[in-house]
């Protein structure tokens, strides 16, 4: 096989220490401190950093082979239509066109799916969303490929779209998106699939578990607040669009270079569609230009492979931005109804939630999203009587799936809004009400799961409240209008500008839940190179910008006492690492690298004993690795690794699993479905021009418990980035869907925060170790995305007095002009 | 396919590149990436809405995705590959170094555009305060949200004080 | 993008002869809108005439105190030009509130005059749009139309004019100089852009063979006290929901001169003559400003998604005028 260029080596060389941006009051002594420079707890430079700033880092769209063809995708112009026929003859005849393929050309399984295989590789029978792939072309020039698409004739019988998720959930007369007799695989029996419902999950505790009605439970409370909320459809909006390069191999298989979040789950979906055994479908991770959940589902993976296998030539596919909006799943938009009851002294008595999540045309991860939305739908509060009903439905809207915060974001906006309403009713400070009802270690969630790890929520809330406030706006004197809502376009000097402060806290499950066999694999090799010990770390884990390549190197340095570590490119030559999602890779692949390192260590110690450097009965506990040498507590340096190993290498591969989780009971929703919980608290300070509806987020400060800081600088980046995406959902980001069609598939019309919108953040990090996790760490990427949204909206409410029950909040909501 | 091709010469990073069969539809971005193999300049949206394709033309920052290559014949184009006079990873430009030290990126896809935009901005002299840097860097989207560190990296090179008034993250200097 | 013949014009005469010989030719300057539209195949010229080498990049003072701006002057250059910053701060601000630093370095004055709408249906070639395809129908009326106009709409088109610069030019009574092989003429900016009526695809008074060569801004004392205000969903790099260009001169508590134009709400850069009429010689009070705004917006037609713009425009007009009343003349 010819290797595509450029390739991306990821060497790790002697790191330089970076300053820590994170103020970390240590609440507990860390687990093993690293004495090796660049180890766990320090901030070595990203090994891929220099390549990224010089333009040499090869993203999937940068892959190139001299004889490659370009693929392009014909997409449905209708959200819902029956396909009567497809005529490709006009396209096939075009000079420069090498293949035109439809569903008839799919060699194996015609459907794929991350959890449930309902999505056609290429549409047949019906199209169920606008932008669904119908045919694919390979040509010698991208422009030729696009022209060829124009010549494919598809005869559609247009059907009425199924656009209303509430109707899809509850109206038995609603047309079915997936009609009966479509030969879909059986649904999970616990998911209550029926009609357009992908999954329904109830949760019942206290009196609700005993069959009490809402009216009966309501009678137990002194104060009741209700709310109806809407969350718009958010896009992950990574900057590097979907792209991949498939190269046909001599063994009849295919090598795919792809930007993805999970190589092996792609492989397990691609191979059956191609009718190939998995070992003939080899994947290598190409540079990933951001992911945030959108690359967990496949996009063009099977298409590129099909075209490469059909033409015998490498085929590259790169989506453009509009295609990207159609080509990946989005965050589920939601309609939610909440009711909370409390005693006069501010103790929550009961809460109910009805959550309808619009999954769009295909299942993707909708069932798992429902699992999170139901189990965490009431947040981190102790509530004696709870009732949650969460529904995920099929519509002909764009398919929805994973996005940072996965199923917990929508509910967090609502329960936090409810707590604020309740605090106002009770005349309590919002932080005080939260503290009175805060979960802590030993609490039980609404699903009956005991929180068996530190959860210092009350302390975090206090810390957030006590953080220094940003300076007040100057009452007189010169004003930098850039600091006011509306920025330089401001006319006012601050008159009509009101400040508001708001808080948000969210509870997020980390790693995969509900009985999923969640594991990661790492291979670690220790050998002597040029007279120095060197370590190679090989996993299939996707570096998507989170800095996992740095973390893997740090762990290897810490565990093996060797500075020189090389992280190999991720590919399917090693076992699955699971997904770069659910904030799980530091935990899971970090855990796997650590386990493999410990196995290598044990082998090294065996060599030490075999060499007679210590007695046969000398236990491992009395030996250590530091500075490239084997040391003994009693006797100091025993031998250098270079001398001990000589020309031989020690290599170990390990799988790492977190402890098992349970399915939720299908009728009561009870079960220990999560393995770890993460939490972030935000305090937002906003200035609002109440006359014109403009918001400036002045400060967005955060307190997060991460168990153990592995890399302070990268951790700060995760908290800042997660918070910024929450800010976007609060104030501007929404895919506008009307008639099931995306109306703003561009960065002109789908707005994400710019550098002007995201304020500097003060971040306080706590380290209460989770005894179940490697190093006691807790996944960190997602919790900030939950809590920043409700904190900002609460601050805007505080400044304006508007109810603001729909996000994103727009100028017209703030000035109080009603919209539909 | 094209009705007509042109012969054009692009001056990129101090070198002349003859493009004998230039399709006039070719953007500067595509010419850089596909004809010259300079893939450091990125295509984020192709429609001028994200800033990932920023390069310098005669020292001014522009979006190469909106520029037809033919219009830039004879102009001096600088890309991320040519920003450091000596080039390459061995001797990066101070901005490139500052971005690494400040961890001013995560996935890195927007980074070449951010750095080229910052280079143009420093020449424009609009880096007097963190607020001004923010205002004039707002044409470069970063979805990973590394903005605070981008401000810090640009300020380092432009020698912009991060205080007073500003509440940049409490980062020390290395 | 469709194929086209490319021609680089060395001088104005060559450009004018080339365009008169070719019925479907387009001039290309900054490219920040036309390249975009060509890529989406909304514009499909057979010939593209590169005019970037024409000598039209000067900003010059006119006798009598006005300013002449060459059509190829880049937006960033114009916004930073001392003559503009001193005499017409509203114009400088309007430009700086649009797009991004990179785009302003590319975009030209002439191109900005011809900037086309951001109505989502104009860009969606799968939807009917009378502006893109005359007679096809208008999908915006029943569809998503939050960013469409409330003033000057017709049953055929709701598309808002997207430019910031043109709003300031409309307030300043600027004139557009255009040339063709037939000669030179001047068109007031307020007549340059057309209302959609039954022909929304005809957006300007410019004939297909005419080249915009300059914009001339007459002297206006009130312009020294002028501002541009833009309300949008994001603090930068976003189109206006509502924008207001205003110049105000007050004497003895009464309005001596008021110039007002609105953006984001009109199918063309919207000179607010009704408001100016109400303000003429009126007391310079918030009440009068409000009344003026009401008068201008009386004819506005809102739809479910965009009706909020009527009230928002009223508030913005009042806010800008109030600010100008107390201004110290400084600009950011």
Would you mind describing this structure in some detail?
The complex is a heterotrimer of chains A (820), B (174) and C (332). Chain A has 820 residues and is α+β, with helices and mostly antiparallel strands. Helices cover 24% and strands 25% of the residues of chain A. Chain A has a seven-stranded mixed β-sheet with strand order 4-8-2-15-12-13-14, sandwiched between helices. In chain A, strands 10-19-18-17-11-34 form a six-stranded mixed β-sheet. In chain A, a hairpin with a 4-residue loop joins β29 and β30. In chain A, α7 packs across α8 and α11 packs across α12. Chain A is globular, with a radius of gyration of 27 Å. About 3% of the residues of chain A have low confidence. By secondary structure, chain B is α+β, with helices and mostly antiparallel strands. Chain B has two domains: 77 residues, Beta-grasp domain (Ubiquitin-like (UB roll), Roll); 65 residues, DNA polymerase, domain 1. In chain B, strands 2-1-5-3-4 form a five-stranded mixed β-sheet, with helices on both faces. In chain B, α2 crosses α5. The N and C termini of chain B lie far apart (55 Å). The relative contact order of chain B is 0.14. Chain C has 332 residues and is α+β, with helices and mostly antiparallel strands. Helices cover 30% and strands 20% of the residues of chain C. Chain C has 13 helices and twelve strands. Chain C has a five-stranded antiparallel β-sheet with strand order 4-5-8-6-7. Chain C has a four-stranded antiparallel β-sheet with strand order 9-10-11-12, sandwiched between helices. In chain C, a hairpin with a 6-residue loop joins β11 and β12. The C terminus of chain C is likely disordered. Chain A: It comes from Marinitenerispora sediminis. Chain A: Pfam families: Ald_Xan_dh_C, MoCoBD_1, MoCoBD_2.
Using brief descriptors, characterize the structure shown.
heterotrimer; A: 820 residues; alpha+beta; Aldehyde Oxidoreductase, domain 4; Aldehyde Oxidoreductase, domain 3; 4 domains; 7-stranded mixed beta sheet; 34 strands; 25% strand; globular; C: 332 residues; Uridine Diphospho-n-acetylenolpyruvylglucosamine Reductase, domain 2; Enolase-like, domain 1; 5-stranded antiparallel beta sheet; 12 strands; 30% helix; 20% strand; disordered C terminus
């Amino acid at each position: 096989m010819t290797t595509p260029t450029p390739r991306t080596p990821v060497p790790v060389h002697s790191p330089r220490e970076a300053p820590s941006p994170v103020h970390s009051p240590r609440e507990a002594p860390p687990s093993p401190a690293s004495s090796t420079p660049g180890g766990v707890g320090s901030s070595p430079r990203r090994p891929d950093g220099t390549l990224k700033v010089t333009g040499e880092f090869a993203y999937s769209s940068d892959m190139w082979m001299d004889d490659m063809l370009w693929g392009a995708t014909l997409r449905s112009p209708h959200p819902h239509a029956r396909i009567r026929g497809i005529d490709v003859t006009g396209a096939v005849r075009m000079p420069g066109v090498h293949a035109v393929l439809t569903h008839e050309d799919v060699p194996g399984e015609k459907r794929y799916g991350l959890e449930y295989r309902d999505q056609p590789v290429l549409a047949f029978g019906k199209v169920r969303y606008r932008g669904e792939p119908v045919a694919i072309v390979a040509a010698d020039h991208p422009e030729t490929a696009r022209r060829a698409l124009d010549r494919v004739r598809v005869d559609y019988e247009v059907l009425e779209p199924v656009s209303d998720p509430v109707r899809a959930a509850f109206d038995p007369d609603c047309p079915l998106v997936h009609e009966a007799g479509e030969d879909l695989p059986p649904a999970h029996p616990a998911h209550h699939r029926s009609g357009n419902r992908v999954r329904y999950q109830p949760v019942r505790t206290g009196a609700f578990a005993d069959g009490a009605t809402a009216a009966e439970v309501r009678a137990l409370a002194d104060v009741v607040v209700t709310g109806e909320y809407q969350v718009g459809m958010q896009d992950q909006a990574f900057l590097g669009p979907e792209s991949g390069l498939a190269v046909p191999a001599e063994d009849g298989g295919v090598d795919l270079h792809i930007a993805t979040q999970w190589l092996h789950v792609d492989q397990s979906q691609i191979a059956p569609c191609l009718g190939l055994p998995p070992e003939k479908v080899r994947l290598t991770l190409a540079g990933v230009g951001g992911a945030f959940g959108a690359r967990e589902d496949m996009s063009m993976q099977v298409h590129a492979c099909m075209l490469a296998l059909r033409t015998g030539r490498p085929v590259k596919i790169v989506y453009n931005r509009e295609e990207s909006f159609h080509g990946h799943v989005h965050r589920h938009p939601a309609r939610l109804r909440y009711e909370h009851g409390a005693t006069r002294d501010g103790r929550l008595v009961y809460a109910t939630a009805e959550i309808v999540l619009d999954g769009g045309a295909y299942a993707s991860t909708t069932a798992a999203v429902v699992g999170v939305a139901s189990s965490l739908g009431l947040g981190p509060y102790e509530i004696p009587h709870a009732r949650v009903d969460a529904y995920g439905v099929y519509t002909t809207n764009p398919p929805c799936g994973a996005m940072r915060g996965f199923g917990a974001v929508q509910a967090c906006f609502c329960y936090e809004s409810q707590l604020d309403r309740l605090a106002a009713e009770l005349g309590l400070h919002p932080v005080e009400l939260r503290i009175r009802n805060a979960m802590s270690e030993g609490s039980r969630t609404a699903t009956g799961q005991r929180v068996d790890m530190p959860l210092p929520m009350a302390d975090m809330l206090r810390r957030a409240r006590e953080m220094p406030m940003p300076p007040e706006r100057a009452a007189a004197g010169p004003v930098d209008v850039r600091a006011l809502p509306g920025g330089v376009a401001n006319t006012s000097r601050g008159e009509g500008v009101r400040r508001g402060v708001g808080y948000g806290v969210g509870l997020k499950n980390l790693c995969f839940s509900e009985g999923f066999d969640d594991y990661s694999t790492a291979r670690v090799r220790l050998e002597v190179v040029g007279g120095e010990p060197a370590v190679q770390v090989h996993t299939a884990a996707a570096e998507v910008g989170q800095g996992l390549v740095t973390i893997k190197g740090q762990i290897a340095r810490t565990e093996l006492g060797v500075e020189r570590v090389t992280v190999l490119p991720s590919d399917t030559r090693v076992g699955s690492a699971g997904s770069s999602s659910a904030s799980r890779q530091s935990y899971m692949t970090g855990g796997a690298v650590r386990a493999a390192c410990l196995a290598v260590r044990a082998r090294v110690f065996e060599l030490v004993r075999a060499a007679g450097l210590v007695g046969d009965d000398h236990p491992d506990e009395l030996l250590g690795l530091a500075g490239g040498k084997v040391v003994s507590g009693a006797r100091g340096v025993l031998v250098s690794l270079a001398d001990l190993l000589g020309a031989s290498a020690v290599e170990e591969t390990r799988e790492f699993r977190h402890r098992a989780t349970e399915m939720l009971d299908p009728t009561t929703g009870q079960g220990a479905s999560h393995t770890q919980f993460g939490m972030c608290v935000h305090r937002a300070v906003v200035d609002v021009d109440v006359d014109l509806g403009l918001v400036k987020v002045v400060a967005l400060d955060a307190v997060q418990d991460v168990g153990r800081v592995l890399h302070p600088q990268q951790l700060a980046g995760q908290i800042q980035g997660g918070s910024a995406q929450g800010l976007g959902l609060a104030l501007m980001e929404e895919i506008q869907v009307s008639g099931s069609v995306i109306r703003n598939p561009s960065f002109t019309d789908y707005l994400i925060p710019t550098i002007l919108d995201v304020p500097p953040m003060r971040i306080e990090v706590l380290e209460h170790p989770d005894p179940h996790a490697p190093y006691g760490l807790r996944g960190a990427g997602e919790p900030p995305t939950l809590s920043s949204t409700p904190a900002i909206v609460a601050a805007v409410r505080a400044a304006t007095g508007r109810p603001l029950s729909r996000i994103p909040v727009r100028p017209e909501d703030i000035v109080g002009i009603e919209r539909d | 396919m094209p009705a007509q091709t042109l012969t054009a010469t692009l001056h990129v990073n101090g070198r002349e590149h003859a493009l004998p069969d230039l399709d006039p539809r070719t953007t500067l971005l595509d010419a850089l990436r596909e004809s010259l193999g300079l893939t450091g300049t990125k295509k984020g949206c192709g429609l001028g809405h994200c800033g990932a394709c920023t390069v310098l033309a005669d020292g001014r920052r522009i979006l190469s995705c909106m520029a037809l290559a033919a219009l830039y014949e004879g102009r001096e184009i600088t890309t991320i590959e040519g920003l450091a006079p000596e080039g390459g990873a061995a001797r990066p430009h101070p901005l490139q170094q500052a971005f690494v030290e400040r961890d001013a990126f995560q996935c890195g896809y927007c980074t070449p555009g951010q750095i080229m935009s910052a280079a143009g901005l420093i020449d424009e002299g609009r880096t007097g305060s963190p607020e001004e840097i923010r205002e004039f860097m707002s044409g470069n989207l970063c979805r990973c949200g590394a903005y605070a560190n981008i401000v810090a990296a640009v300020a380092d090179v432009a020698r912009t004080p991060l205080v007073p008034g500003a509440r940049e993250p409490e980062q020390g200097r290395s | 993008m469709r194929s086209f013949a490319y021609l680089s014009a060395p001088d104005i005469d060559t450009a004018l002869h080339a365009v008169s010989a070719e019925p479907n030719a387009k001039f290309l300057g900054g490219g920040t809108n036309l390249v975009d539209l060509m890529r989406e195949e909304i514009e499909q010229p057979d010939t593209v005439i590169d005019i970037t080498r024409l000598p039209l990049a000067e900003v010059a003072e006119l006798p009598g105190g006005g300013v002449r701006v060459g059509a190829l002057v880049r937006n960033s250059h114009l916004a930073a030009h001392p003559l503009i910053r001193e005499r017409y701060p509203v114009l400088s601000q309007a430009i700086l509130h649009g797009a991004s630093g990179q785009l302003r370095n590319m975009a030209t004055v002439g191109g900005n005059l011809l900037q086309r709408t951001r109505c989502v249906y104009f860009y969606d070639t799968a939807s009917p749009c009378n502006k893109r395809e005359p007679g096809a129908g208008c999908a915006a009326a029943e569809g998503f139309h939050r960013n469409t106009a409330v003033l000057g709409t017709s049953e055929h088109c709701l598309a808002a004019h997207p430019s910031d610069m043109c709003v300031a030019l409309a307030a300043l009574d600027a004139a557009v100089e255009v040339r063709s092989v037939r000669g030179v003429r001047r068109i007031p900016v307020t007549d340059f852009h057309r209302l959609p009526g039954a022909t929304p695809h005809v957006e300007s008074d410019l004939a297909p063979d005419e080249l915009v060569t300059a914009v001339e801004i007459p002297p206006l004392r009130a312009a020294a006290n002028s501002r541009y205000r833009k309300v949008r969903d994001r603090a930068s790099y976003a189109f206006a929901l509502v924008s207001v260009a205003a110049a105000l001169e007050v004497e003895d508590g009464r309005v001596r001169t008021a110039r007002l134009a609105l953006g984001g709400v009109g199918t063309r850069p919207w000179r607010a003559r009704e408001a100016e009429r109400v303000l003429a010689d009126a007391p310079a009070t918030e009440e009068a400003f409000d009344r003026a705004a009401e008068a201008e917006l009386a004819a506005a037609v809102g739809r479910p998604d965009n009706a909020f713009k009527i009230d928002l425009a009223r508030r913005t007009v009042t806010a800008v005028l109030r600010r100008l009343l107390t201004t110290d003349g400084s600009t950011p």
